[in-house]
Amino acid sequence: GITKNALVQVSLNEKKEFKFVQRVVPADNSCLFMTVAYLAMERTRDPKVGNRLREICIDQVLSNSSKWTEAILGVPPDEYVKKLADSSTWGSYVELVILADYLG
Length: 104
Description:
Elements: H1 31-40, H2 47-63, H3 70-73, H4 77-84, H5 93-103
Helix pairs in contact: 1-2, 2-4, 2-5
């Protein structure tokens, strides 16, 4: 997995060249989860890993009701996770925040 220490720090005075590479992920409404899986988990393309990341997000919302409130989610947490459990539901900024915290 990715750790905070693995992040590249670039000095403002240092010139760096970056290369961007486009990777195609299935357009199956789980693309956010599959992209995070690919980038953070040894380039995996296993849909089970993407599904597991979705489950982690559901677990985090349910177990941290003081952070993931209706005011943040836009709907009550139980309604939010019910929708998120449907594999046709896209991930959002909420899932990115959860996965960033989870993966460290």
